[in-house]
Write a structure and sequence with these properties.
With about 160 residues, this protein is α+β, with helices and mostly antiparallel strands. Helices cover about 25% and strands about 45% of the residues. It has a single domain, classed as Alpha-D-Glucose-1,6-Bisphosphate, Chain A, domain 4 (2-Layer Sandwich), CATH 3.30.530. It has an 8-stranded antiparallel sheet with strand order 1-2-8-7-6-5-4-3. The chain starts with a strand and ends with a helix.
């Protein structure tokens, strides 16, 4: 069974869902604290090498990755548009590239057989289907799956 479920049912969106064996507060910390982000975000092809985060409405973030093969660095930058209870909305773009995506992240905590789990859902909304399809063509699903595996290892160790 696949742990990460990626769907593209809406022409301009990518939806990713993953259930983690950890409480919501730990998942949220891992997703919003720079010192934790650098321990899981990214993958073996492009690990995250630095993270700056101002987790507040209007706050900015910058995630810098380094490709393993040629060591070229690239960054994703964004701002927090909304922050609520287990939910936040960001506007993100690749630094130096045109266009942006609106990403809505939700964390829902449940208890299953006495174990606390958190279901993470990230919906990425793009300006056009063409842009969405370009993102899908990068192999992002494989990279995201690896990142979320790293996230689960991290939050179960905290």
């Amino acid at each position: 069974m696949k742990k990460l479920v990626v769907t593209a049912d809406v022409p301009t969106e990518i939806k990713m869902t993953r259930t983690l064996d950890a409480p919501r507060r730990l998942v949220e910390q891992a997703m919003t604290r720079p010192e934790l982000l650098t321990r899981w975000l990214g993958n073996s092809y492009s690990p995250l090498v630095s993270a700056e985060v101002e987790f507040r409405v209007g706050g900015a973030y910058r995630h810098v990755y380094r490709r393993s093969g040629d060591h070229v660095e690239f960054a994703f930058v964004g701002t927090y548009r909304e922050i609520g209870d287990g939910r936040w909305v960001t506007v993100e773009r690749m630094e130096g590239a045109p266009g942006e995506a609106v990403i809505t992240t939700t964390l829902v905590e449940t208890r299953v057989d006495g174990v606390t789990k958190t279901t993470l859902t990230a919906v990425m909304a793009f300006p056009t289907q063409q842009v969405r399809d370009m993102v899908l063509a990068t192999g992002m699903e494989k990279g995201a799956a690896e990142s979320y595996d790293n996230l689960e290892r991290l939050v179960t160790s905290l």
